[in-house]
Amino acid sequence: MRRKFYMHRRGGVFYACLVNQETGLSMSARSTGERDRDAALIVVSGWLRDGLPGKDGERRKVEASFDLDGILRAIRKAELDSGGALAIVKALKERGLIDIGAVPAGKGSVNFVSFLSGFFDYDKSAYVRDRLAHGHSIGRRYCRESLKMIRLFWEPTFKRRTLASITRNDLKSFSLSLPADKSASYKNSILNAGLIPLGWAYEEGMIPADIGKDFERYGGKATRRGVLTVEEAGALFAKPWADATAMAASLLSTTTGMRQGEILAVRGEDIGEAVLNVAHSWSAADGLKSPKNGEARRVPLLPEVREALLAQLATNPHTDIPEAGRFVFWGLSPETV
What we know:
Blueprint: E1 3-10, E2 13-20, E3 30-31, H1 37-50, E4 52-53, E5 59-60, H2 62-77, H3 82-94, H4 112-119, H5 126-133, H6 140-158, H7 168-176, H8 184-203, H9 230-238, H10 244-256, H11 260-264, E6 275-278, E7 281-283, E8 287-289, E9 297-300, H12 303-313
Antiparallel strand pairs: 1-2, 2-3, 4-5, 6-9, 7-8
């Protein structure tokens, strides 16, 4: 291969531009680092003989450098779209030259905290819409609590970061910065407010890697809730209660193990002769919804508990709707508790 070059002076230093006579392509000018022409010629001769020095100190043959320089020039001048750019990345990955992922520019450039907030916006979130469309349960209260976690913990740390800029090391540092006086379950809830959206963003092609996959959560035993003994329960209900509503709810909880939301959701139609139909749960954010496990169930109903529920139902003032649809533990309007 016949080669030639030409030199010019820039700022007192000689630069050389190698030319491939077979293709007519020339490389970008490179500094010889010399101010004397003869010394510069010696440097260029060394390039032609031993190869061009790279940033890593290794020398690359001039033929290979011409190929690389031509590729870089073509990439810089070509009218590339995101599909073409991804194809280049894919080709480099197939050769084992890189191991990073890539997504089209723009998807991951959104503000990270704004993305998290939108993710848990119950009325606008694509994630929520998808969950509900596939029959999965997700409530407004859950989204509201997640937004609270984002505002209190994620936003102060990441408010100026983009979604695509978040790394696994960022997550590790954030995890270690969580308040030591909080329980393991509370800290895991904080982490989930960010890790779940990050996993979804990866599945949707917004970021190149699922940086939260198999992320270490906090361990530790949850504080066990105490349970009344038979003797304690007997003593509790043996004395008169000032509030009949509180007593009816407590009787139901003690004898059936129902959750608070399930108790609040009980209506006249749920009260049977010997069983209670647990078909709904109630929260201020969601109103009536499915029970926590997503399935209705029936629980035994003791006569004295049934009597207390019917007595409480009879106090419901919303007589403009049938008794079957009235809440036992009623609120200011027929539709609320």
